[in-house]
Structure of LacI family transcriptional regulator:
Amino acid sequence: MQVTSKQIAEMCGVTRGTVDRALNNRPGISAATRDKILKVADELGYRPHFLAQSLVKGETKTLGIVLFDIHNQIFSQLFHSFEAEARKHGYLTYLVLTNKDQELEVEYIHNLLNRKVDGIAISAVNFGSKFEALLLKAGIPIVSFANRISAKLPYVWIDDKQATKAAVRHIADKGYRRIIFVIPPLRYKGTSNIYVPEQRYKGFLEICGTMPDLQYDIVSDRSYLTSVLQLVTQSQERTAILCSSDIYALEVARHLKAHQVKVPEDAGIMGFDHIDVLRFVDPSLTTIDFQVEEIGRKAAELLIENIRGNDIPLRTNVTYSIVEGESL
């Protein structure tokens, strides 16, 4: 049977208000009384009734985070830092995984709202006015990251367009005159939220438009490994392969190796994300590092600030940098 603050008050010969002050470290009681109450509470195995507290305080000290993919290391890294920051401020985090299922994503959002979480951070696969309205009517703070949902909801990420432009300039500075841009998520345009890939695609086209001497191809088909191999082996120019994520870069590198195409002698490769596993890769991969742990920490920090009633910016850009490897 759960021990109540009323029972502790009766055993200590004090009021429930005094017990509440002791258990929540509030002023208004003597040190001796506080110590006595805490000792009795510990002996009885007292645990606070968070549901009852939430009804009184209007908060549950819980957050929700909605991810569409945990196999991609950037999201597991991001969740780790988000949870650590939330815990530092006394919040418990509920993690839900949608596996890129749009209906499941909506269901999970309703589940989190029904559990009265104080705020939600989300990387969405849904998009459009109906989904935007659902989140805006939720009645709690919501922060998005990765795939942006709405200009009306706070968003934490990097400037993907500028980062992609920096990657292309870096490749060109290495003497490459042809770039193959591998970006498979583009084939989901119009059916899923692919804000990040779209921004990287736009950045790529914009920078290539300013470099008339640079030839380029864009590969987004399902058989992208076969397409890349064919383009590389047929190219008469020094060719680099820019991939929209490190995962694609590693898959391309493995496929090229299986067909006796050497990196970087025959073709250079550059990724995007700087996932942890890259420290085991040989040759080391040149990539874009966008401090994913900082994004997770910042998302939690801003969400909690908003829960406390403070205004937060609608757009927060985290810095990025080029990590030089041996693959270019």
